[in-house]
Structures are given as C-alpha cells and as structure tokens.
Amino acid sequence: MKCKKCGTELGKKEKFCPNCGARAKMSKGWKIVLVVFVLLFVLIAAIAISGEGGTDTPTTTEPETEYITLDEFNKIKNGMTYEQVCKIIGCEGKLVTSSEIGESTSQSYAWSSKDMGGVTYGATVVFIDGKVTGKTQAGLDLVDDVSSAIKDLS
C-alpha cells in the first residue's frame, strides 16, 4: 500500500506515513467490521423501537409518501447514493447515526412504515462514503400484508 499524499510504500500495519505523517487509508477489513457494527447497532435499535408499541399517545396521519413500503425497500441496492434512495422512497430519512473512522464516513438513515396499532415498523439504510453498503427492515412485509387485507375487505 502506498501513501496517497507522497507515494511512500507503507507496511500493512502502519497507520501513518513515516515520510509525511499522513494517515494511512483504512483497510477493506476495517470497512467490513464497520459495516457489520453499524448494521448490528441499527438492528438492535429497530428491535428496541418496535418493542415500545401499545402506548396511548395519539399519532398524526401523514401523507402516503412519508412511509417506506417493502417494494421500495427492495429497490434499494448497494452503491446507490442517499439522493437515489430518497427518490425511490419519496422523502428524506431520519439520520440515526453518523461516525467517522479514519477517512471513511458512515451514516445510517431510518424510514418508518405506517403505524400499525401503536407499533411502527420501518427500514434503515447504511451509507459508507456516500454509498449504500447495507440495509435492514423490520415488519415491512407484515405492514404490506395487513394493508392488502384491509383493501380486500373494502
């Protein structure tokens, strides 16, 4: 590996260039560890949030475009930008986490589904250096099934 500032050859374990002092680029292994850590954190957060249902707090009705569906979730692919994801879903997500490790930035955004009797399901998308690297959803398939059943009864 070479220093991206001065071109000096760096050892695999060197964190800084011995010639110019620049920080060495993060290895692919660390990026994978970061993605796994962020996805695990997001999954735990989604489980904790979904377990808070059943409150008597009134909810407001928002336009249909403010929710993510399973179909929209399935259209999100690795390598997409945040703007491309927002275009698919129809609205911006809520920034859940943001961190910087070395020269890489990691951000995760969350979108909610329709409120299902006090329980809100949704999806989280992880971006590293501005590109989708992972996604997770909780209950979107259930929301779509219930919505379809209600439409069939109408």
What is the count of helical runs? 4
Spatial sequence of strands, sheet with the most strands: 1-2-3-4
Low-confidence stretches: 52-65, 143-152
Indicate the overall shape: elongated
Q: Which structural category do the helix and sheet elements fall into?
A: alpha+beta
User: How many strands?
Assistant: 4
Q: What is the succession of H and E elements?
A: HHHEEEEH
Largest sheet: 4 strands, antiparallel
The helix content is 25-40%
Specify Rg, calculated over alpha carbons: 20 Å
Q: What percentage of the residues does DSSP assign to strands (E)?
A: 25-35%
3D architecture notes:
This protein is α+β, with helices and mostly antiparallel strands. Helix content is 33%, strand content 25%. A four-stranded antiparallel sheet has the order 1-2-3-4, with helices on both faces. A hairpin with a 2-residue loop joins strand 3 (119-128) and strand 4. It starts with 27 loop residues before the first helix and ends with a helix.
List keywords for this structure.
alpha+beta, 4 strands, elongated, 4 helices, four-stranded antiparallel beta sheet, 154 residues
Q: How is this fold's topology laid out?
A:
Layout: H1 28-50, H2 70-75, H3 82-89, E1 94-101, E2 104-116, E3 119-128, E4 131-138, H4 140-153
Antiparallel strand pairs: 1-2, 2-3, 3-4
